[in-house]
Write a structure and sequence with these properties.
A: alpha+beta, Phenylalanyl-tRNA Synthetase, Chain B, domain 1, five-stranded mixed β-sheet, 20 helices, B: three-stranded antiparallel β-sheet, 23% strand
């Protein structure tokens, strides 16, 4: 909102220097955005919050200044003579859309001489960036910038049958506005029309056909109230935002409607001559009285933590236009008609606080001590970040909304179609991602493309798994934290990182894997990861790990192989034991044995490990896989040699070589039987 | 030792053994020479301690995460615990309970990421003005406050941190996705002076002992009075967020009696704090996934 120093001076003495004034305004609710000198006048740009439509005119801002500097506001007195035939002789108004236009008033001025505005008027409008048109239109704009009430003047001769109809737009109806562009009207558009045609988009812009020109002699002056939502929707739909629509969207002063109409009549007759027809057409002249609000000084102190004397409260509220009467329990206030935002005690408390000054509120009023603890989840996430960064993987953050194409590359958790936003977020992205892997893949590719950097990345963020079809429409999606990981080449390096993660979080039991087929992962190269549940039996799905499909890798112009994983943070945290418990260290020496078994290719390490555990039981202190090699010439086809080490130890005695031998014998026998293994000696 | 090795592997094993043997010998000789005083200068000329160290390859924690940890820690010392909620919300939590009525501009479909409905799964229909969806990406973390207040009774002292979404065209200071830290304190006898004190202590902790704070009146539907919070940092007042006393309508929506309890709420932009602290000049870098950026933190 631009206000001119000269213009403001018409309503209040500006006793403060500019810098101090704008500072005071900023600190009392009208934030200073900047000032400029235009033709010897200072124009101040103030930010007006959406609840303060009353400050969208110079009088409103002057009222604030008057309250801050303890002065009286000077509102111009309106005087003009009415003469000629009564308004009803020339004009009728029918309101067919009261839901969008609760009140419409009109006055008629006959015999105006349209021409240029006087210099003071032109200067005033130019200073606040409003174009000069002719004396009648300029007055309507001046009054709007004076009190905040938009007005519109029609050429009475162009109002068909002398009848104004407030109605909704018709199908395929168009209006050529005063900007000479054509706008489509529809049944949600509130239109000001005559007996047949649309003349204006209500509260937004007038039409070209009925605009006031040099040829105009008689005018209809509209001062109305249009509903904010209706005006906003129309302005948005037509991409037509005007100073009028801006003000109607923030509500106008119901009492000010008539004031503005009369003020314009006064200025027009003064400047352009003519005479005001006796009477006014007003579709809703009854203005409901404002309800009284009680302000209790005790509540002021209780909410602000600051005592303000009752006399001061009284003075501030009066200066803002409230009618105040003192009672035993507090001040009874009737808020002014232009302050729609003042309906409750707390609203009045804000008023006294901002005028009295927030700087007077103490900043040394500590809150009582209260214990707070860190969430288990946050402790776990910190530990996870520690492990992953120690593994050389960096944390990335990428947008939650991605393109549909990206989202569909890998979606291991669900096949249900992803949720979509109606408006796109970035470059056509409107899909709420179902997995973090595609975003990480994209980042890895971008790093490679831009700087030949091999980016091992992780991200901890929500994924949005749609609720199953047929479920309640109001049901929110299944939205939980996932940990996405992307790295290169080595499947086992990433698997090892995940194993370490589980280990560091105290997850009991082994990380189990089961081959799984998912689009975007290489065939046979992906596994589902699971953890043993609390009951020791149930298997909980932790996530997925695997090689990214080579086709995708190529599509992203990445070299080598890419390994990706995604874990459910909730499952991981639920199974964590974040406080490690000490395990007794055996004081007895351990015995290490290395074994080299020839096994059929189909035997998996976990089957072998299971037999080792069964054979050694509690005496197995450690089991380490060493390596696998294949020698078809010696061992025959589909065979492999697996070398591993066992550390055997007892908690209660020194294990003898004989004890160890018997464990190994037992193991070898069971391997021979169950895995068709052959021991290499 | 070579007895346990396959015949075919014996030559290779032998070679390995010899290599080990010669390595041990040379190390032994080297050690002997060093003990004897080495060369004339008394030190090993091949040992250059100014060569760079061999560094472990470590990953980096995202600066936003670091900021969030820091904020959580500071607020934790003042008794605030972390609470979280979903990012996909319904209009009741995101607007209605926060005293944002249907005709409020904040609810405009063009200012929010409403989700496409089941009727229009493609999500490709044009957005018609005034047509809200039943779900949207939250535009503020205040939704979490509603969820917490619906569930527990005062006293409440929480902060909620997380991603929020608003359709801003991306530039150096705007991104359609960003993080907010919202604080909420509800108890008996909570005052605006308490709010100012908490934010002042926060600013002194996070930005520096000499940082000053000021309130400027503002307007948020869910607080009354509402203020913008400025911090005086390096001689300039910088706006860091909004705050205020919880609006009685919000208390009514969650079933509290505004005559019995009072409370304050504040919201600070995490990116703004993070960028100031680390000298980051373009918000888009934060979400680029670019390792050249990430590895600086």
């Amino acid at each position: 909102m631009l206000v001119s120093w000269k213009w403001l001076s018409r309503y209040v003495d500006l006793t403060l220097p500019h810098d101090e004034l704008v500072d005071r305004l900023s600190l009392s609710g009208l934030n200073h955005e900047g000032s400029e000198t235009v033709d010897g006048d200072v124009v101040i740009d103030l930010e007006v919050t959406s609840n303060r439509g009353d400050c969208l005119g110079h009088i409103g801002v002057a009222r604030e200044i008057a309250a801050l500097t303890e002065q009286k506001l000077k509102i111009p007195a309106i005087e003009y003579q009415e003469s000629g035939a009564a308004i009803d002789e020339s004009l009728a108004v029918e309101n067919k859309m009261p839901e969008a236009c609760p009140r419409y008033t009109a006055r008629v001025i006959r015999g105006v001489k349209v021409g240029d505005s006087p210099e003071w008027l032109q200067e005033s409008l130019k200073s606040v960036g409003i174009g000069v048109v002719n004396n009648v239109v300029d007055v309507t704009n001046y009054v709007m910038m004076e009190c905040g009430q938009p007005l519109h003047a029609f050429d009475l001769a162009k109002v068909g049958d002398g009848k104004i109809v407030v109605r909704s737009g018709k199908d395929k109806e168009q209006l050529e506005a005063i900007d000479h562009r054509h706008y489509d009207l529809n049944d949600s558009t509130c239109v000001i029309a005559d007996s047949s045609d649309a003349l204006a988009v209500a509260g937004v812009m007038g039409g070209a056909s009925s605009e006031v020109t040099e040829a105009t002699t008689d005018i209809v002056l509209e001062a109305a109230e249009f509903v904010p939502l209706s005006v906003r929707r129309t302005a948005r739909r037509l991409k037509l935002h005007s100073p009028s629509s801006f003000r109607f969207e923030r509500r106008v002063d119901p009492v000010g409607i008539d004031w503005a109409s009369r003020r314009a009549c006064q200025l027009i007759t003064e400047i352009a001559g003519g005479s005001v027809a006796p009477g006014v057409i007003d579709t809703a002249p009854e203005i409901p009285a404002r309800e009284t609000v009680l302000l209790r000084p005790k509540r002021v102190a209780a909410l602000l933590g600051l005592e303000i004397e009752t006399a001061e409260l009284d003075k501030i509220l009066r200066s803002l236009g409230c009618e105040v009467s003192a009672f035993a329990d507090g001040l009874q206030c009737v808020p002014p008609s232009w302050r729609h935002d003042l309906t409750r005690e707390v609203d009045l408390i804000e008023e006294v606080a901002r005028i009295h000054g927030y700087d007077k509120i103490s900043e040394n009023s500590p809150i009582p001590v209260a214990p707070s603890s860190k969430r288990r989840f946050d402790t776990a996430m910190e530990r996870i970040r520690g492990v992953l960064t120690a593994a050389g993987i960096s944390e990335s953050m990428t947008p939650s909304v991605v393109t549909e194409k990206l989202d569909q590359m890998i979606s291991p958790w669900t096949e249900l179609p992803a949720l979509q936003t109606r408006t796109s977020m970035l470059e056509g992205a409107r899909t709420l991602r179902r997995s973090l892997i595609p975003s990480l893949l994209q980042s890895r590719a971008a790093n490679w493309a831009s700087a030949s950097l091999i980016a091992d990345l992780f991200e901890i963020a929500h994924v949005y798994l749609p609720a199953p079809a047929g479920s309640d429409i109001a049901l929110l999606p299944d939205e939980t934290y996932h940990i996405g990981l992307i790295a290169g080449e080595d499947f086992f390096a990433l698997k090892g990182t995940i194993e370490t993660l589980c280990d560091r979080l105290g997850v009991p039991g082994e990380l189990a894997v089961a081959p799984v087929q998912r689009d975007g992962f290489a065939k046979g190269g992906a596994v589902e990861l699971s953890l043993v549940g609390d009951d020791g039996k149930e298997s909980l799905r932790l996530g997925f790990l695997g090689f990214v499909d080579d086709k995708l890798v190529k599509k992203w112009k990445l070299t080598g192989r890419v390994v990706a994983a995604e874990l459910s943070a909730d499952v991981l945290v639920n199974q964590s034991r974040l406080v490690p418990q000490q395990q007794a260290v055996s004081p007895f020496p351990s015995i290490q044995r290395d074994l080299n078994l020839v096994l059929p290719e189909s035997v998996r390490w976990n089957e072998l490990a299971e037999l080792v555990r069964k054979a050694a039981k509690e005496r197995l202190a450690d089991l380490t896989y060493r390596e696998t090699y294949r020698n078809e010439k010696v061992d025959g086809p589909d065979k492999k040699r697996v070398l591993f080490s066992m550390e055997l130890q007892s908690q209660t005695e020194t294990l003898s070589g004989g004890d160890a031998d018997s464990i190994i014998d037992k193991l070898v026998t069971s391997c021979e039987k169950q895995l068709s293994a052959v021991l290499l000696r | 030792m070579l007895g346990g090795i396959e015949k075919a592997d014996k030559p290779a094993a032998g070679a390995k053994l010899n290599a080990v043997k010669s390595a041990i010998n040379s190390a032994f000789e080297g050690a002997q020479q060093n003990l004897a005083g080495g060369d004339d200068s008394g030190s090993d000329p091949t040992f250059d301690p100014t060569l760079p160290g061999t560094r472990p390859s470590l990953g980096h924690i995202h600066p936003i995460t670091q900021t969030i940890s820091h904020l959580t820690e500071i607020m934790g010392r003042m008794g605030f615990e972390v609470a979280e909620g979903p990012e996909v919300e319904d209009p009741w939590h995101n607007f209605v309970a926060l005293n944002i009525p249907e005709d409020h501009p904040a609810r405009d479909p063009l200012d929010n990421f409403y989700l496409a409905t089941a009727k229009d799964p493609s999500g490709k229909s044009s957005v018609s003005a005034g047509d809200e969806g039943s779900q949207l990406l939250r535009s503020q973390t205040s939704t979490v406050q509603i969820r917490v207040m619906k569930e527990v009774q005062p006293p409440i002292r929480i902060i909620s941190l997380g991603r929020v979404y608003r359709p801003d065209a991306p530039d150096a200071t705007h991104f359609p996705m960003f993080h907010q830290m919202e604080g909420l304190l509800v108890d008996t006898n909570v005052t605006m002076a308490n709010l100012k004190t908490v934010l002042r202590v926060f600013a002194n902790n996070y930005l520096g002992e000499d940082v000053e704070i000021r309130f400027r009146p503002s307007f948020f539907p869910f607080t009354e009075p509402s203020v913008e919070v400025d911090f005086l940092w390096n001689g300039t007042w910088i706006e860091f967020g909004g705050a205020g006393m919880i609006d009685p309508n919000v208390f009514a929506a969650v079933g509290y009696d505004p005559e019995k309890v009072s409370g304050f709420a504040f919201g600070l932009g995490v990116e703004r704090l993070c960028m100031r602290r680390h000298g980051i000049t373009d918000i888009r870098d934060l979400y680029s996934g670019d390792l050249r950026f990430l590895k600086q933190f």
